């Protein structure tokens, strides 16, 4: 297994670049200040579209290599036309994606080759909240469950520790399990 | 304006169905219990893909009319290959989409015709958190700002109140600004 441990790319992660990036941020911590953005346009009813392209990071304005667009809507049972997932489903995708990306990086750094990582994220929500029918019911998810299947060339306990460390360093898990201040500004002309 | 106030579809929202749905939930509150799900598969490095299709609601297992798939990745400056937005950018899209869908419903219920709703959601994040370089820095967004432009056939103050009410009834805003319990389970074989 020594070649597996020594080559730079593991799990599709360029570990040399990963460690170099961490060293660069150690030397210049302000490079790690990022601002991400989504630009949204209402289309009709509950149907709207976001564009994700520009962001700030490593001291400069930057753009993704492509412009990504995503549509959201409600299904017919929630008085929409099902042109896209609901906004709350995108949150579940974001959580799965964040934990999984972190897990692959951590595995690479620890010399573990992954063969499979799958997850299902489920969120329970009582729409009596957003419908304004029961003031005791919150608007958002009452609870979220993540079920991971992780396979790789390490003992089960080491694979479980990858998931634990990905939780300890997940941006989206932090956003969901802790509080983020949100400011809303409105222009009407 | 009486025709505008009386016809059932306003802003693409079928208000008759919207009110009927609210009445149905009033009569049978358990119909409002939903479970949404995302199924994620790791591809390589920080690149992974979620599938959104099945959910539970109105007492039954249901599916969206289509299967939605979304890819997430990191850009090259974050040691990825930019095959999709970052997970944290999907959170910003979810917030914009949730506030916008709610706003359109609320405007329809209040008899206001919208002509334009746009928003930019910006999230500030210091990656010294997720890189484990500064224990005083959180993993997630330190703050999020939503900038709305709302135009329609109502005074500016009424348009601003639409945004306020959409904040008061947003599932994603609640998830971001308050705490949601998350449980993680791992299978390794």
From TrEMBL, chains A, B:
It comes from the Bacteria. PANTHER family: HYDROPEROXIDE REDUCTASE. It comes from Dactylosporangium sucinum. It holds the Pfam family OsmC. This is OsmC family protein. InterPro entries: KH_dom-like_a/b, OsmC/Ohr_fam, OsmC/Ohr_hydroprdx_reductase, OsmC/Ohrsf.
